[in-house]
Amino acid sequence: MCGRFVLITDLSVIAEEFGVHDVSVHFSPSRNVSPGQHIPAFLRRDNQNMMVTYLWGLIPFWAKDPSIGAKLINARAETVAEKPSFKNAFLQRRCLIPADAFYEWKSEGKKKIPYTFSLKSGAPFVFAGLYEQWISPDKKTVETCTIITTRANGVVAPVHDRMPVIVPKVAQELWLNPEIKDPSRLLDILKPYPEEELVCKPPDF
Question: What CATH number does the domain containing 195 carry?
Answer without folding.
Answer: 3.90.1680.10
